[in-house]
Structure formats: structure tokens, C-alpha cells
């Protein structure tokens, strides 16, 4: 089996998925440095559910969030198994971390040592928008991501995207209930904190999730919902 075949053998139905390959040389945190290449997997979110996120997370959005996280974790675990069967060592990275796994250091920075969005831009899947979302060419921001690091020189990594294509659009900036974004456009290397206040975002996510879902979780989704990229239905 070639590399593509091994990777796709782990995806039961490829329609709602996108896959990208990235050369991450010198970009990974020290702990991941034995690896250089990564595969990023995006799972499309249901349009009707995302379209209905006008004022904050809905129970359907929360259910989809948990279900897609499980599905993506299963897919990257299956990929690791398929790669191992072919003698390739890999390390699957789950879509997110649960509250119980959060360290003090994380709560002070709101940064993990692994960014799925960085793998995605390096793979040429999309760019970072004004509210720090990955805007994929295929599904816009309407997707969740997982990755897998591989100990194998992928022969056909994507061409990195280093600039945004948002232009003058600031729909997400205006709609953000936390007013977390300055409106500045992203380029590779611009730090999140220069254009996006993750602390304001998290606080609002937790407030909305508590009020609307009665869950101690960080969900919102308004910036995902208003982005014109990836919207399939016209607005009236
Ligand atoms: C911590 C976290 C949060 C925090 C902080 C958010 C933030 N923007 O940093 C809080 C709790 C606020 C949060 C909220 C949400 N999150 Co969140 N979150 C994460 C998590 C677990 C880690 C992100 C992190 O470490 N950020 C630190 C900063 C520095 O990195 P970054 O956000 O990845 O972005 C930088 C890099 O990508 C870098 N970069 C990109 N390409 C390149 C290339 C080069 C060369 C360089 C040098 C840098 C670079 O540019 C960005 C800006 O600096 C990720 C999962 C993961 N492990 O990636 C999900 C993740 C980012 N969250 C996600 C989502 C969907 C949300 C919410 C919509 C919640 C919800 N589900 O309802 C909101 C939206 C927030 C927003 N607009 O960004 C998705 C994003 C999907 C997408 N389309 O982009 C992710 C990827 C989870 C997933 N598996 O899909 N989140």
C-alpha cells in the first residue's frame, strides 16, 4: 500500500473529510521533535447545526462537538494502527483536551504545545482568519481537526499557506460576543496574542455554555457560523 492508501484506509466515509500532509521541520515543540512530518484530518460540521448558532452554543452543537471529537480520535487512532502495520511509527494527537487534563500552565497561557491549525496551514489546507480560526478552502471554518505525526518522509507534502485571504471581511470580528479580535489580518509568524484575545474568548465561551447548556465547557461557535467561507446556504 502507498502512503495515501494507508491513510485513507482509516477513514470510513471520506466525503465529510479533508486530509493534508505537512513538513513541520523546526516548527514542532521539542517533545515532538523526533517527528518531522504530519497528517492533518478535518471533519466537516453539519451545516444546519452551525447555521443555527446565532447567539451561542445549542444542545445540538454541543452533541456534535462531542461526537466529532470521538470520531476524529477514532480516525487518527485507526491511522496509527494502519501505519504501524506497514512499519511506520506515528503519534496521533486528539482534537482537544478535557478540562481534567488542563494544567496550571495552560490556564495561564491558553496554549497547548501542539497546534492542529499550524499543521493545516503548512499542509496548504487553509489560512488563519481574523478570529484565529482555520479557514479551510474546502469547508471554511466549519470543521474540527486532529493530526498524526509520522516517522516517515511524506513524498508529497502540501504547499504552505502563509497569508490570509479574508480581505476586508470582518464578519467574525463584528459578531464575536467577547470582542476578542482586533481585526488585524494573519500572516505566518504573527502571534495569536497580537490580534486575538483568547482569554476574553474563553470567558465568554464558558459563560454562554453555562447559561445555554448548563455545561462547564468552552463552547461558542458564533465566529464559525458567520464566516462566509464554507457556507452552503444563502442568507435571506
Ligand atoms: C486552547 C484552545 C482554545 C482556547 C484558546 C483559543 C485560541 N484561539 O488560542 C479557547 C478555550 C478560547 C478556545 C475556544 C474555541 N475553540 Co479551541 N482550541 C484550543 C486548542 C485545544 C489549542 C489551541 C492553542 O494552543 N492555541 C494557541 C495558539 C498560539 O495557537 P493556535 O490557536 O493554534 O493558532 C496559531 C497557530 O496556528 C499559528 N500558525 C498557523 N500556521 C502557522 C505557520 C507558522 C510557520 C507559524 C510560525 C505559526 C502558525 O497561527 C495562529 C496564531 O498565532 C485547539 C486544539 C489544538 N491542539 O490545536 C482547539 C481549537 C483551536 N479550537 C477550536 C474551536 C472550534 C474553538 C471554538 C469555536 C469553541 C467551540 N468549539 O465552540 C472557540 C473559538 C476560538 C477562536 N476563535 O479561536 C478548533 C478550531 C477549528 C477551526 N476551524 O479553526 C480547534 C483546532 C479544535 C479542533 N480539534 O478542531 N479554544
Fold blueprint:
Blueprint: H1 3-8, E1 17-23, E2 37-44, H2 47-51, H3 59-85, E3 90-93, H4 104-109, H5 116-122, E4 126-128, E5 134-136, E6 143-150, H6 171-175, H7 192-195, H8 198-213, H9 222-226
Bound molecules: cobalamin.
Task: Tell me what the structure shows.
The protein is of the alpha+beta class. The chain has one domain. It contains nine helices and six strands; from the N terminus they run αββααβααβββαααα. The strands form two sheets. A four-stranded antiparallel beta sheet has the order 1-2-6-3, with helices on both faces. Strands 4-5 form a two-stranded antiparallel ribbon. The chain binds cobalamin (B12). Cobalamin binds at residues 27, 65, 95-97, 110-112, 114-118, 121, 128, 131-134, 141, 143-145, 188-189, 191-192, 196, 198, 201-202, 205, 218-221, 223-224.
Bound ligands: cobalamin
Largest sheet: 4 strands, antiparallel
Q: How many helix segments?
A: 9
Number of DSSP-assigned strands: 6
What are its keywords?
236 residues; 14% strand; binds cobalamin; globular; alpha+beta; 9 helices; two-stranded antiparallel sheet
Short summary:
This protein has 236 residues and is an alpha+beta fold. The protein has helices at 3-8, 47-51, 59-85, 104-109, 116-122, 171-175, 192-195, 198-213, 222-226; strands at residues 17-23, 37-44, 90-93, 126-128, 134-136, 143-150.
Amino acid at each position: 500500500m502507498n502512503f495515501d492508501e494507508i491513510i485513507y484506509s482509516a477513514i470510513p466515509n471520506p466525503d465529510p473529510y479533508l486530509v493534508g500532509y505537512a513538513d513541520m521541520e523546526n516548527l514542532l515543540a521539542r517533545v515532538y521533535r523526533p517527528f518531522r512530518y504530519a497528517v492533518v484530518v478535518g471533519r466537516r460540521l453539519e451545516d444546519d447545526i452551525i447555521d443555527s448558532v446565532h447567539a451561542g452554543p445549542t444542545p445540538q452543537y454541543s452533541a456534535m462537538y462531542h461526537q466529532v471529537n470521538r470520531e476524529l480520535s477514532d480516525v487518527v487512532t485507526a491511522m496509527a494502527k494502519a501505519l504501524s502495520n506497514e512499519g511506520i511509527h506515528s503519534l496521533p494527537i486528539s482534537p482537544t483536551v478535557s478540562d481534567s487534563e488542563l494544567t496550571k500552565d495552560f490556564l495561564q497561557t491558553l496554549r497547548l504545545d501542539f497546534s492542529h491549525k499550524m499543521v493545516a496551514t503548512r499542509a496548504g489546507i487553509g489560512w488563519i482568519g481574523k478570529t484565529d480560526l482555520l479557514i479551510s478552502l474546502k469547508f471554511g471554518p466549519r470543521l474540527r481537526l486532529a493530526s498524526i505525526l509520522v516517522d516517515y518522509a511524506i513524498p508529497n507534502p502540501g504547499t504552505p499557506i502563509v497569508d490570509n485571504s479574508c480581505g476586508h471581511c470582518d464578519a467574525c470580528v463584528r459578531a464575536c460576543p467577547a470582542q476578542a479580535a482586533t481585526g488585524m489580518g494573519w500572516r505566518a509568524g504573527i502571534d495569536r496574542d497580537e490580534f486575538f484575545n483568547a482569554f476574553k474568548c474563553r470567558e465568554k465561551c464558558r459563560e454562554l455554555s453555562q447559561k445555554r447548556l448548563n455545561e462547564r465547557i468552552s463552547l461558542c461557535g458564533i465566529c464559525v457560523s458567520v464566516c462566509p467561507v464554507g457556507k452552503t446556504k444563502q442568507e435571506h
